[in-house]
């Protein structure tokens, strides 16, 4: 198992503890920063990202390993200086990768999920993409390749660099004095997640804020302008799988609708939000409302959804634990089952009927996996296996009950 997945076993519990601490402090201070469905959606999104990373569902246009072999002039020894250089180069590459993800239509789709939450809290840091299937950040690591810094060093430092971006997704920490001039702080990142005209498309840096100051994309948080979080086109769903492809869906629709052949190609590479003139005129997009996306969720459904999230977490850790021992087919099927499970309970939060169909599919796939593993759950047998089967049936029945209760509630209101 890679260093990244080993480090997740330590990082995830720490993230969960910090999310709980943040919620407690917010409650004490009387600040509303969390909504149950939003937290579930965010943490579910993080799980989908881990699943896709595990099955390596992506293509690198240029790999860093190939660059080192091809253009290295010298080979720096592994010292503390090489660690610092590697960290700085990852941060530099991260700035440009991040900036392009905001500025190019097709690339915005893979980053839309991270900005889709209309709250700003530690949970939203876990909203990571499953549509990031084309990777190109190695292009920005050419200086490291010339110096011959080994790919193995990047494999160690990159996860650390990623995890260090978690802490500043919070509203509870104000400006931090001299650190505001050096590091990305919560204040800087609140600006980045805001959609106010004064703030949008600013502060792309990931660890060191000086990249934004160097390349002209820095914006301070202003006392008289409170950040409004989310995206200009609201996600309007708790389902992270739908959110991941929302912008891509719009690009396909606009590309199909335009009568201009050139625009069918250009739309993918134009600045984010650009639409063909004829499509913009004939099919105007609905303007963003000032209201956050909400669904009428009972306390019982909220508790059940958190339980479903917990079950997803347990099975995800099991999936990662047995991953090296399984063949690719079984790994893909297990990954698919986890994705269907997440799709189901987040669709239930949206109160959509296809949450029931997802449960049916999940049960059928589960029994198919059992039948291909000598009727064990990847060597889990006995009472634990019966618990898994009973839970699956209960999950299916409760999903139906919650949907019917919601439908009845709306009929009563009508």
Please explain how this structure is put together.
This protein is mainly alpha-helical and 414 residues long. It is built from 17 helices and two strands. Strands 1-2 form a two-stranded parallel ribbon. Helix 14 runs antiparallel to helix 15 (328-349). The longest helix is centred in the C-terminal third of the chain and has 31 residues, at 383-413. The radius of gyration is 23 Å and the shape is globular. 32% of the residues are buried. The mean pLDDT is 92.
In short:
With 414 residues, the chain is mainly α. The chain has helices spanning 3-29, 36-54, 64-71, 80-103, 105-115, 142-146, 151-163, 186-193, 210-215, 240-244, 246-257, 261-266, 277-282, 299-322, 328-349, 354-371, 383-413, and strands spanning 59-60, 134-135.
Poorly predicted regions are none
The ordered H/E elements are HHEHHHEHHHHHHHHHHHH
Overall pLDDT level: 92
What's the N-to-C terminus distance? Answer: 54 Å
Overall 3D form: globular
Keywords:
414 residues; two-stranded parallel sheet; mainly alpha; 17 helices; 1% strand
Helix and strand arrangement:
Blueprint lengths: L2 H27 L6 H19 L4 E2 L3 H8 L8 H24 L1 H11 L18 E2 L6 H5 L4 H13 L22 H8 L16 H6 L24 H5 L1 H12 L3 H6 L10 H6 L16 H24 L5 H22 L4 H18 L11 H31 L1
Parallel strand pairs: 1-2
Helix pairs in contact: 1-7, 2-14, 2-15, 4-5, 4-7, 5-11, 14-15, 15-16, 16-17
């Amino acid at each position: 198992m890679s260093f990244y997945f080993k480090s997740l076993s330590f990082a995830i519990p720490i993230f969960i503890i910090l999310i709980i601490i943040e919620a407690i402090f917010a409650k004490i201070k009387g600040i509303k920063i969390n909504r149950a469905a939003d937290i579930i959606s965010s943490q579910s999104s993080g799980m989908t990202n881990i699943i896709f990373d595990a099955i390596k569902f992506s293509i690198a246009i240029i790999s860093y390993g190939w660059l080192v072999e091809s253009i290295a002039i010298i080979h720096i020894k592994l010292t503390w200086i090489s660690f610092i250089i590697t960290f700085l180069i990852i941060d530099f590459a991260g700035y440009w990768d991040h900036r392009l993800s905001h500025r190019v239509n097709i690339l915005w789709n893979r980053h839309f999920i991270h900005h889709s939450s209309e709250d700003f809290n530690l949970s939203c840091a876990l909203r990571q993409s499953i549509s990031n299937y084309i990777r190109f950040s190695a292009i920005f690591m050419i200086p490291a390749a010339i110096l011959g810094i080994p790919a193995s060093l990047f494999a160690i430092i990159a996860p650390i660099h990623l995890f260090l971006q978690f802490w500043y997704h919070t509203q509870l920490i104000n400006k931090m004095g001299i650190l505001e001039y050096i590091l990305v702080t919560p204040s800087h990142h609140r600006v980045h997640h805001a959609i106010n005209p004064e703030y949008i498309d600013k502060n792309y840096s990931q660890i060191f804020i000086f990249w934004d100051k160097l390349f002209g994309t820095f914006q301070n948080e202003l006392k008289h302008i409170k950040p409004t979080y989310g995206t200009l086109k609201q996600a309007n769903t708790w389902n992270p799988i739908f959110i991941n492809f929302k912008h891509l869906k719009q690009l396909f629709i606009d590309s199909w609708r335009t009568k201009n052949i050139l625009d069918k190609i250009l739309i993918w590479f134009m600045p984010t939000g650009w639409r063909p003139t004829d499509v913009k005129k004939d099919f105007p997009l609905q303007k963003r409302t000032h209201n956050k996306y909400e669904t009428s969720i009972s306390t019982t459904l909220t508790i059940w959804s958190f339980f479903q999230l917990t079950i997803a977490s347990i099975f995800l850790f099991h999936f990662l634990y047995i991953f090296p021992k399984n063949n690719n087919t079984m790994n893909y099927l297990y990954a698919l089952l986890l994705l269907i499970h997440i799709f189901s309970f987040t669709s239930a939060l949206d109160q959509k009927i296809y949450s029931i169909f997802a449960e049916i599919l999940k049960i059928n796939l589960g029994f198919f996996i059992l039948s291909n593993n000598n009727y064990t759950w990847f060597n889990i047998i006995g009472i634990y296996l019966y618990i898994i089967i009973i839970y699956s049936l209960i999950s299916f029945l409760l999903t139906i009950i919650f949907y019917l209760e919601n439908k009845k509630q709306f009929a009563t209101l009508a």
